[in-house]
Write a structure and sequence with these properties.
Blueprint (H helix, E strand, L loop, with lengths): L3 H17 L4 H16 L1 E9 L5 E7 L3 H7 L7 H9 L3 E3 L21 E8 L2 E11 L20 H64 L4 H29 L4 H20 L3 E7 L6 H22 L3 E9 L2 E8 L9 H7 L2 H10 L3 E6 L5 E7 L3
Parallel strand pairs: 6-7
Antiparallel strand pairs: 1-2, 1-5, 3-4, 4-5, 7-8, 8-10, 9-10
Helix pairs in contact: 1-2, 1-5, 2-5, 5-6, 6-7, 7-8, 8-10
Length: about 400
């Protein structure tokens, strides 16, 4: 019995586990491509997601440097062998792609490729992508120099079967990622709606009170300067409160620069703004946190924002402490306040008001868990744990 099937199945298992850890479409695409290239020991791998205009909405490669990819130029169109896989939804296994009559050449910066294996990725009857591999790395006899051009032995029927298994699960992972992103878009729309209501309810009321108080001060300035002075002081207080409301809303509306700055820096920056904007002391501490999958970082940021919002707007705390620490391969977020607290037994009534339902959904959506601990008069602690990548 050959040893290859066992190692092949183990590699497939590893690849499937890697794909299941990601929820962002771009992360899933990259994982599929890297897994396929490693699984079949190919020099190059690519995955194209077609658009509706004869091109590719996304095209991810592995085995090509960023510099080389930029030199290659625009994304490929759906022609030649690429089109054959997308429209016929059949695998293509070629000894030398350059000798196929459908081959139309490639840009000058494109790496030279010979043996080729391609498979469509299908969701039911719909082809949602195409997976391409080129230049099978071949074991060389002892003492024989190994060339870098690949080719020579070509992809086998067994390779095609292994890649077919991967493609089937890739379809599931990609479909789930798309559903997650659509769900997140709906959540963002709901958050914007909530913020709009808050701005109307809180800031508009503050501004209305400010206008009335200013009018009262103007009426009193001649006949009762002392009272007018008191009213003007109240104007200053109301203006500061309105500014605080606006600053807090801007923090929530501002797109999180997670890709550029990472979760720790983004949280630290936003908490510094909240500390300046509110009378409560808001602190942040972090230790040993590794980079997490993009979906987990965004979920942790949004849960932190929601927990901070609850504490600062409803709990009347003197202090709110946020910590983010490494926890196994993942991370643990803790938001603790010394405010009014609430009775967890009434969590069904309080849950929607305090955003606990959405926070639990966010945590569960990335494989994490949320714990809420609170007592009336004893403050509240919210913990979110994620598993990492």
């Amino acid at each position: 019995m050959s040893h290859r099937p066992r190692s092949g199945l183990a590699a497939v298992s590893t690849a499937l586990l890697a794909m299941s850890r990601h929820l962002e479409v771009r992360d899933v695409l990259k994982t599929i491509v890297a897994s396929a290239r490693e699984l079949l020991d190919a020099e190059y791998a690519a995955l194209g997601v077609p658009d509706d205009h004869g091109g590719f909405a996304q095209f991810v490669v592995d085995g090509v440097s960023d510099e080389q990819w930029r030199a290659i130029g625009p994304l490929p169109r759906q022609h030649g062998i690429l089109a054959a896989m997308l429209h016929k939804a059949e695998p293509e296994r070629l000894a030398d792609v350059r000798e196929d009559p459908r081959f139309e050449g490639w840009p000058s910066a494109h790496p030279d490729m010979s043996d080729f294996l391609g498979l469509p990725i299908q969701d039911g009857e719909e082809t949602i992508g195409a997976l391409f591999l080129a230049n099978k790395r071949c074991p060389k006899p002892s003492g024989s120099p190994r060339t870098e051009s690949g080719g020579g032995c070509g992809f086998t029927q067994e390779d095609e079967e292994l890649l077919s298994i991967l493609a089937q699960h890739a379809a599931i992972a990609l479909t789930n990622a798309r559903l997650y992103e659509r769900s997140r878009e709906l959540t963002i729309a709901e958050e914007r709606s909530r913020l709009a209501h808050e701005l109307h309810d809180a800031v508009s009321q503050k501004l209305f009170s400010l206008r009335l108080t200013a009018q009262a001060a103007a009426a009193l300035v001649d006949r009762d300067p002392a009272r007018a002075k008191g009213e003007l002081q109240q104007v200053a207080v109301l203006a500061a409160e309105a500014a605080d409301e606006l600053r807090a809303a801007v923090v929530e509306l501002r797109p999180a620069a997670l890709d550029e700055d990472g979760l720790v820096h983004t949280l630290r920056t936003q908490i510094q703004v909240l500390d300046r904007a509110h009378t409560a002391r808001v602190t942040f501490d972090s230790s040993g946190v590794r980079a997490l999958p993009a979906a987990q970082e965004e979920a942790m940021l949004r849960v932190a924002q929601e927990a901070l919002h609850n504490a600062l707007r409803h709990a009347e705390p003197k202090r709110v402490a946020v910590s983010l620490v490494r926890h196994g391969q993942g991370a643990l977020l803790t938001v603790t306040d010394d405010g009014k607290g609430f009775d967890p037994r009434t969590v069904r009534r309080a849950g929607r008001h305090l955003g606990l339902v959405s926070m639990r959904d966010r945590a569960g959506g990335v494989g994490g868990a949320l714990t809420v601990t609170s007592e009336p008069g004893e403050g509240t602690t919210i913990e979110m744990e994620v598993p990492g990548g």
